Amino acid sequence: MNKIATSLALTFGLSALAVSATAVAAPQDLGPTLKKIKETNAITLGHRESSIPFSYYDDKQQVIGYSQELMLKAVDAVKAELKAPNLQVKMMPVTSANRITLVQNGTVDIECGSTTNNSERAKQVSFSTTIFIIGTRLMTKNTSGIKDFPDLAGKNVVTTAGTTSERLLRKMNEEKQMKMNIISAKDHGEAFLTLETGRAVGFMMDDALLYGEMAKAKRPADWVVVGTPQSFEAYGCMLRKDDPQFKKLVDAALTKAMTSGEAEKIYAKWFLNPIPPKGLNLNFPLSDAMKALYKAPNDKPFE
């Protein structure tokens, strides 16, 4: 290299290196999830098939629901961030049993359904700002005589496999020696069918999901939700761990929806008005816990 070339290299080399470093760092600054979405021009959303009214199929096999609408707010934020208005949105059905694994291994970029944020799960995945707060209760036939959990002693009880309700029910059975026969169904629809066909006298699950199952029953008036809540739980959208950039973007989108009043309108649509597929109304009023959440969104679990 001659003196002029050396001089030019010394003069401009640092600047060129800086530009080069910025160019290399830029995609990494997005974090792994946004980087993957940008490179593939696609985002994969994890959804439930029968978690009414959060995330479920309508009669045209389209995914609809409260959680689904909020997840689409996050998708809009991703499109804006990446300047990718034509971003492909892929839908992936998940179950209670496989949803964490599918987020962990990158098959699903974000899952919004009816997933409880707790400290145990937080070791495996990250959670967004809370989107819903529920209490775990019981659904039973209005003629069953069951008013609360102690009435289940010695009886068949159903819940959905892989849920917090299943864990709580098994713990209660062991600690209080209630001799319940606990049936684990693959999803909420199957659990309600077990109840409806008389193979169980009670179905333990999150209260909002119980109202959802009631709304699609053959005879909704035959069923009641009873019992002292065994836990309060915060639903969040699941994201891969150690990706603060993606979490920040998702949280900001959800927080904006909540504090602007938009989330409350979405709530009214799904919980206080007739919903597909049968046009039934859950009549599930906005709780004080939900009102507080909309005023001050946070991602804190109850346990």
List the helices and strands and how they pair.
Elements: H1 3-29, H2 31-40, E1 42-47, E2 50-51, E3 55-57, E4 63-64, H3 66-82, E5 88-93, H4 99-104, E6 110-111, E7 126-127, E8 132-141, E9 156-160, H5 164-175, E10 181-185, H6 188-196, E11 202-206, H7 207-215, E12 223-226, E13 232-235, E14 238-239, H8 244-259, H9 262-271, E15 274-275, E16 280-281, H10 288-295
Parallel strand pairs: 1-5, 1-6, 9-10, 9-11
Antiparallel strand pairs: 2-3, 3-4, 7-14, 8-11, 8-12, 8-13, 15-16
Helix pairs in contact: 3-8
Mind explaining what this structure looks like?
The chain has 303 residues and is an alpha/beta fold. 41% of the residues lie in helices and 20% in strands. It has ten helices and 16 strands. The protein has helices at 3-29, 31-40, 66-82, 99-104, 164-175, 188-196, 207-215, 244-259, 262-271, 288-295, and strands at 42-47, 50-51, 55-57, 63-64, 88-93, 110-111, 126-127, 132-141, 156-160, 181-185, 202-206, 223-226, 232-235, 238-239, 274-275, 280-281. Strands 8, 9, 10, 11, 12 and 13 form a six-stranded mixed sheet that branches. A hairpin with a 4-residue loop joins β15 and β16 (280-281). α3 crosses α8 (244-259). The chain is globular, with a radius of gyration of 23 Å. The termini are far apart.
